[in-house]
Design a protein that fits this description.
By secondary structure, this protein is an alpha/beta fold. It folds into 2 domains: 1-82, Corynebacterium glutamicum thioredoxin-dependent arsenate reductase, N-terminal domain (Helicase, Ruva Protein, domain 3); 83-219, Response regulator (Rossmann fold, 3-Layer(aba) Sandwich), CATH 3.40.50.2300. 46% of the residues lie in helices and 10% in strands. The chain contains 7 helices and 4 strands, in the order H-H-H-E-H-E-H-H-E-E-H. The protein has helices spanning 12-28, 35-50, 59-77, 98-110, 129-136, 152-157, 191-212; strands spanning 87-92, 115-120, 160-164, 177-180. A 4-stranded parallel β-sheet has the order 2-1-3-4. The longest helix is centred in the C-terminal third of the chain and has 22 residues, at 191-212. Keywords: Arsenical resistance. InterPro entries: Phosphatase-like_N, Ptyr_pPase, Ptyr_pPase_sf. Residues 86-211 form the Phosphotyrosine protein phosphatase I domain. This is Phosphotyrosine protein phosphatase.
């Protein structure tokens, strides 16, 4: 693998893991993006997480997942891939509570009929444990998610951008559909306080699915 984009120090294990990740991405995006683009997105994705308190062994996996999302978005933006499914981006400050619950509900109710992503203006270190618990009560597991930033290609690929408390930090692209959901921040709150926030998010997700013409999947 080229070292052109390696800015964060890598252990031997991480180098091997990134090489393996690049091979998987190259296979998945064969005919869409070349090796240079894939390596650039993989390594810049790695750098997004390397400076934050994330278990080092998980960094290559996080980088691969985020690079895959970014490459999928870029393919849509550049007209290289279009399956007709609506794409929604949920944004909040830390991408640890509200946007993660919205993502969980949207993916649960939309199934494969639509695509959803999430991001934060100041991504936290981990998803809010109380939000995870609140969603688990509804049978939805968001414990495997992780706070991440947004990038230009991800915002540009979204058909709808839903903002939740990120204010002026939220990205604005002319002509794109935006919705601002005013919701209390679950950070630092107990489960009893987070449940009403969770339920309001689900109500709004259902309304958004109706607007997009996506039939909610059976519970």
């Amino acid at each position: 693998m080229s070292n052109t984009y390696e800015r964060a120090p890598l252990t031997l294990d991480q180098q091997v893991a990134l090489t393996t990740a690049a091979t998987r991405l190259a296979t998945d995006f064969e005919g869409t993006f070349g090796t240079e683009t894939i390596e650039r997105f993989l390594h810049t994705s790695y750098d997004q997480f390397a400076g934050r308190a994330v278990v080092a062994n998980f960094l290559p996996l996080l980088a691969e997942r985020f690079a895959r999302q970014r490459l999928t978005a870029l393919a849509k933006v550049e007209g290289l891939s279009q399956d007709g499914r609506p794409t929604v981006l949920f944004l909040c400050v830390h991408n640890a509570g509200r946007s993660q619950m919205a993502l969980g509900f949207f993916q649960h109710h939309a199934g494969n009929a639509a695509i959803a992503w999430s991001g934060g203006s100041e991504p936290g270190e981990r998803v809010n444990a109380v939000a995870v618990a609140a969603m688990a009560e509804r049978g939805i597991d968001i414990s495997g998610e992780y706070p991440k930033p947004w990038t230009d290609e991800i915002v540009r690929a979204a058909d709808v951008v839903v903002t939740m408390g990120c204010g002026d930090a939220c990205p604005v692209f002319p002509g794109k559909r935006y919705e601002d959901w005013t919701l209390e921040d679950p950070a630092g709150q107990g489960l009893d306080a987070v449940r009403p926030i969770r339920d309001e998010i689900e109500r709004r997700v259902h309304a958004l699915l109706d607007q997009l013409g996506v039939t909610a999947q059976p519970a």
